[in-house]
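TICKET #2291
ISSUE: user wants both folds in one file
ATTACHMENT 1:
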Amino acid sequence: MKNQPSLFSSFFSVLWLASMLTAVWSGLAHLPQAGRYGLIQSSNWSPSVAHYYSSAALLFLGTYAFTVWRLQGRSAYCLTRCGLLRIILLIGLAISGLALIVHNMPNFSLYDGVYAYVKMLHLVCALALLPLLIYRLCRRWTGGYGWLKPRDGADTCCGGSRRRPAQR
């Protein structure tokens, strides 16, 4: 395996992993099957509180990561395709999650089709992250990159189009 330079510390990675696992666990506790069949014991605690805190931590860490990459690492690192897909899914989760928070406020509500669409978008984005995680782990074991890869002159990066002139 290659010794790859890193833009973020291992402490950041541990915080990201802990926040993501807490968000997934508390999100699964919201599913009706988890409570009905006793898959996740949540009778003494509300999974919403843990879900809100872990989501807030993920929003903070994501904003921090974007800021660090934008200020320090943009010239040395570029997004991989898998990293771009994960960012798109995380943005979808954040927007749909904020819409669900607004729905829970006392003076506002999403009605019928809009609520179902937002709820399904949140669930689909969350479930679509799992295959990307498995793909990333397989690529990592074979020497691939995760979110970011070092920028080389020969490699093309996601997001920046370097088109060659048409050959005649």
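ATTACHMENT 2:
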Amino acid sequence: MAPRRSRDADKQTKSDPQIAPEPTARTAGAPLADDEADVDLLEEEGVGTIAVETDKDGERLDAALARLLPDLSRSRLKALIKDGDVTLDGAAVTDPSRKTRVGERVTVLLPPPVDADPEPEAIPLTILYEDEHLIVIDKPAGLVVHPAAGNWTGTLVNALLHHCADSLSGIGGVRRPGIVHRLDKETSGVMVVAKTDVAHQGLAAQFADHGRTGDLERAYLALVWGAPEPFRGTIDAPLGRSNSDRTKMAVTKSGKEAITHYEVTERFPEGSGREAVASLVECRLETGRTHQIRVHMAEIGHPLIGDPVYGRGFRTKANRLPPDLGEAVRAFPRQALHAFLIAFAHPVNGEILRFESPLPQDMRELISNFHSC
């Protein structure tokens, strides 16, 4: 099958994704590299500064920056503007309502936090397993993994510091203690965190290997538009930063190798007599690139439902659905992606541990709505 091309950026350097049928599902998993548009995905001009270019006329400056820099809240951006920490084409501006013009270069100075060390916070955790060396949690959508610009508090790290006290591994640094892999803020599912340095080293080695030679296994469930063909296959398409939008990733010839194995597990409506409106897809990663599943599925023409970055036009698609279903899709607040499985060798005793997380309620309800279409 000739894969459908994304309308995303980098057309002049894009590499067509190679999609090959797979006779059997792979069991190798891989870490999903920081599946969030963190500040390190933006164009940085120096320590604590971010530069972007406006792309609309007549938009409020604070609103434009909130759209272009999704990791920073609009309230924080408004405060930065009022404090004189934002410049337009080199000139300071202090009015958040100032209207933008296409092509203006906006530079945001991010003052260092008063206290860079995260504080323990009593945030509830769903714990699937815990021993003296590691802890496995079921992360809800909406929870940021570690402190970063725009999210210095209320993160998983803050919750872990409260739960584990001083027992977290320090290898990840003060803002990422014990963190060996990450999930996007709006991606739900199972994660493992190291509590000791020996566990951190052992787990990090397994994630670095991506399960190619070891026991690491990670799998995700994604609700996507349409139904990929073939129903089981491999997407082999290198990923790098988008040339036109530095907050996004894109398929590009100059990118890093990225391989996703997928299998359609359910289509809506069921049966072969009607065109699929959506489908539930299991994805396993042979590499761990930023936004890999989201970009790869969008690249073959089946973006994740609810994805605000790579699912362009999904609200238009929702308008074509039956009223109740369309309303449910438009109201879905995030990309429909859930890390449902993780398996690994215990870094100390070698025991193979396997944990599964059921689909969260929001995805179950959305699937139920699709069953009715």
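RESOLUTION: both attachments delivered.
EXTRA DETAIL ON ATTACHMENT 2: Confidence is low (pLDDT under 50) at residues 1-13, 22-47.
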